[in-house]
C-alpha cells in the first residue's frame, strides 16, 4: 500500500495556527491534501496531528485522520522522521502493509498532484530509497562569506574567488515540500540526505519556505501570480 502522510501539529509559534490558516482562499493544509488526492498515487491520505481542529479541517478536505498524534511527537523538538515512522507503525498495527510513503508538508501550497506522481515514477525508475524535492541555490555557495569576530569579511572558499560563476559546481537545497520513500527505509533510519536519495528538481519560482509572517506574505503573492498563469 502507498500512503501519504501529512504532518500538521497544532503548536506553531511564529505563525499561530499556521497549518489551517487561510492561504489564498482556503486553509493552507487543503493544498497538500488536494494534491495528494489528485495525484492518484495513494491508497490512503493521512494527516498526523495532535490537534482536533486541524483534524476536523483535514477531514473536510478528504483526508483520513485515524489517530491523534501523541504528545511526545508533537512538541517543538519532534522531528519529521519519527512522525512518519509513527504513522507507518500505526498502519502496520492495524494490519495495513505499507510499502511506499510520501510525506507532504502541510504548508506546501505549490505542490501538485502531477509533481507527486512524477516524483514517484522517478523513485521507482531510479531504484533509490528516497526521492524528494530540491532546488538550486540562487547564488553560488562557494562565494559565501562570514563575518569575523573583528567585524571583517572572510570567504569560506577563497580559492574560488577568481572562478567564473558558470564554472562553479551548482549546489542544491531541500525545497521543503515532499519526501517519497520506501517504508522500510524510513523505519530503518536510512539517511535521507545521502546517496540513497534521488533529487526531484524544482525551479526557484515554485519554492518558498513558510516559517515567518514575511514568508507567508511572499508565498501568498507568489501563489496568486502562479495561479493566474496556470503554473501551480
From TrEMBL:
Xref: SUPFAM superfamilies: Nucleotide-diphospho-sugar transferases (SSF53448)
The keyword GTP-binding is assigned to this record: no
InterPro entries: CMP-NeuNAc_synthase, Cytidylyl_trans, Nucleotide-diphossugar_trans, PseF
Record's keyword annotation contains Transferase: yes
A UniProt-annotated Pfam family: CTP_transf_3
GO MF annotations in UniProt: N-acylneuraminate cytidylyltransferase activity
Keywords for this protein: Nucleotidyltransferase, Transferase
Name this polypeptide is given: N-acylneuraminate cytidylyltransferase
Amino acid at each position: 500500500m502507498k500512503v501519504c502522510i501529512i504532518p500538521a501539529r497544532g503548536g506553531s509559534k511564529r505563525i499561530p495556527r499556521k497549518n489551517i490558516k487561510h492561504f489564498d482562499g482556503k486553509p493552507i493544509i487543503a493544498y497538500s491534501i488536494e494534491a495528494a488526492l489528485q495525484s492518484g498515487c495513494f491508497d490512503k491520505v493521512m494527516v498526523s496531528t495532535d490537534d482536533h481542529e486541524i483534524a476536523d479541517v483535514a477531514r473536510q478536505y478528504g483526508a483520513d485522520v485515524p489517530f491523534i498524534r501523541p504528545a511526545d511527537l508533537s512538541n517543538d523538538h519532534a522531528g519529521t522522521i519519527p512522525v512518519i515512522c509513527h504513522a507507518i507503525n500505526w498502519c502496520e498495527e492495524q494490519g495495513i502493509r505499507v510499502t511506499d510513503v510520501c510525506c507532504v508538508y502541510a504548508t506546501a501550497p505549490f505542490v501538485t498532484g502531477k509533481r507527486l506522481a512524477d516524483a514517484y515514477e522517478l523513485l521507482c525508475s531510479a531504484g533509490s530509497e528516497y526521492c524528494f524535492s530540491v532546488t538550486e541555490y540562487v547564488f553560488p555557495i562557494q562565494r559565501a562569506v562570514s563575518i569575523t569576530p573583528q567585524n571583517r569579511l572572510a570567504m569560506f572558499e577563497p580559492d574560488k574567488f577568481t572562478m567564473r560563476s558558470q564554472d562553479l559546481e551548482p549546489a542544491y537545497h531541500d525545497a521543503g515540500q515532499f519526501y517519497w520513500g520506501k517504508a522500510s527505509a524510513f523505519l530503518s533510519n536510512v539517511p535521507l540526505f545521502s546517496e540513497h536519495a534521488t533529487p526531484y528538481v524544482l525551479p526557484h519560482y515554485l519554492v518558498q519556505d513558510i516559517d515567518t509572517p514575511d514568508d507567508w506574505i511572499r508565498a501568498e503573492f507568489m501563489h496568486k501570480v502562479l495561479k493566474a498563469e496556470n503554473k501551480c
